[in-house]
């Protein structure tokens, strides 16, 4: 039973924000579906943004079984076919000048490689990043997320400059450019600006933002690093999310879906001119060139390309915009859909949400009650980010369930609603996930 495993989990693991408590225990995953130990099936609109090709893709599993039988591991200093082929494939996608790659097991580690490359190339160690962003949990990566993480964690890297997020409702993009300019004028020690080109809270930047930041970086000898750990590999309807924003970075970091939603792997792709310090270790992790993880990535990219999944993501974005526009007519609680490709979020009318004091966790819970697994993106929106492999029938099913869940949420916001009176809204307030709201995709 799910409840037993959730209780054993709670007793065995350290508790941490964003992970505990678990809502249920999984028995199986398949395509867009999660199935829990109680036999309940949920359509996965989150998938930790690792499920671009759906869960347990049969071709990926077959490729991994084959890899297990041939070459399951490769110690450092030896190379192997899947690792080299993956690097070559990723480099062939890079639109900038010649590039090189390095792999790590997780996104946070790959971010740290990118930071080291920038330090070595520029001789400068300070960083600019966006306040309220998320780049992983390493001491380097996590310090980029916010200026003042919890004091109990102690000091992070020195020289971190945090700027206004472009998605801040009061002229965020203008303030972000002004903050970046101010930081660059105040310090000559800044070597890197790191950000998601399209934040995984699904706010799309204005088209002038990244070209201006690119110019500022160039003028001050600062490397621009894009974190595409959740948004890369076609999720936004282009292979790299930065292909939407009018700026090519000096380095891009991929992760999450790179392992096909099965194995952990992340990659840094960067301008080959940063290949400056062969005598230094930049991140030679134990599983750097693991043939299993690299084969997973190679097969994932093959599937994405062969099945036209990037174009599918772009097409479904248009479809979803018009379907949600229709939904809004019947339900004024539904305010908008935002994002690119299938990196999407649905926003509720903030005034109604505030007036009813409706916690977004309650909405996420209602979605789950209606068969949809999603996460909060901010206090009035949640992610709608299915795999790129979702079929038309599955999408219709998801939209029908979404409509039902939104009607149920709308009832909770009606003035004087019985639900509010009898406190059932509070009963549903189970899992406000601050880390998802402020953090990871
Ligand atoms: C934008 C972004 N960067 C970095 C990371 C860290 O990746 P990992 O969990 O693989 O270390 C995440 C994970 O959620 C992310 O969303």
Question: Which helices and strands, and how do they pair?
Answer:
Layout: H1 2-12, E1 26-30, E2 33-36, E3 41-44, H2 58-70, H3 81-93, E4 99-104, H4 107-122, E5 126-130, H5 139-145, E6 160-163, H6 172-186, E7 190-195, H7 209-219, E8 223-227, E9 251-254, E10 266-271, H8 291-306, H9 309-330, E11 334-340, E12 343-348, H10 350-356, H11 360-369, E13 372-373, E14 376-378, E15 381-383, H12 392-413, H13 418-421, H14 424-428, H15 434-438
Parallel strand pairs: 3-13, 5-6, 5-7, 7-8, 8-9
Antiparallel strand pairs: 1-2, 2-3, 4-10, 9-10, 11-12, 12-15, 14-15
This protein binds pyridoxal-5'-phosphate (PLP).
Summarize the structure.
Helices cover 40% and strands 16% of the residues. It has helices spanning 2-12, 58-70, 81-93, 107-122, 139-145, 172-186, 209-219, 291-306, 309-330, 350-356, 360-369, 392-413, 418-421, 424-428, 434-438, and strands spanning 26-30, 33-36, 41-44, 99-104, 126-130, 160-163, 190-195, 223-227, 251-254, 266-271, 334-340, 343-348, 372-373, 376-378, 381-383. The structure holds pyridoxal-5'-phosphate.
Features:
Aspartate Aminotransferase, domain 1, 4-stranded mixed β-sheet, 15 helices, binds pyridoxal-5'-phosphate, alpha/beta, 441 residues, Aspartate Aminotransferase, domain 2
